[in-house]
Input
Amino acid sequence: MLRTRTCILLVAATMASLQTAHAQQWGNLKGKFVFDGKAPEAKPLNINKDLECCKGKHLDEGLVVGADGGVANIVVYLRTAKPKVHPDYANAGKEPAVLDNKTCKFEPHVLGMLTAQELEVKNSDQCAHNTNISPLGGGGINPLIPASGNVKHKFTRQQNLPIPVSCNIHPWMTAYVLPRDNPYFAITGEDGSFEIKNLPAGAELEFTAWQEKAGYLDTPTSPKGKFKKKIAAGDNDLGTIKLKASVFKLK
Output
């Protein structure tokens, strides 16, 4: 009797283990955004203050198109609430996300981070900056950061749109920060490509695509910037997504 009961428990445990293993499949979402046609040249910014500190070439980063037509700084992020999170992300967010002031320019121009993560705003310049971040729902900051100084900040809630960042001392300086409750977000590189790793497979998930000039990327594949994708285990490639000038509100 005891042996029979033990066997039943072992079988049940094995089945539960197999079900758990089956449920815990993961997939990667990747794709590439490219400008359809000849992209406009980035315009120089008007640098009219602290010229010794603000050295170098300063171009408008509202639309950054690489040599091969890839569109940088597009944010792709999961909108589906409370997803299963891969164990590899267990330590994500323990190190601060860094936004730096370098030669009177924010680096990076677009930053994705976890809501629970600490934001460190550095000033690598030899002149003072302020960093004005005003998220919806409150919890913003606007500190004066002296030369070679830094400040740290924790957001109180995630945002559904990137938060504009500015420096009132140097008004040409702009950037964006997006805090999210889960690690499923990515920002396109210079070649326009992105990859979100280890998404929960098997379910249809909803994503948002956003870009500074365009806002929500309204395309046939992502109307009003939203698209759904059933994630399969392994790689899920959206391929090359062409973006017309009209998407960026260009004439």
User: Anything to note?
Assistant: The chain has one helix and 18 strands. The CA atoms of residues 77 and 134 lie 20 Å apart.
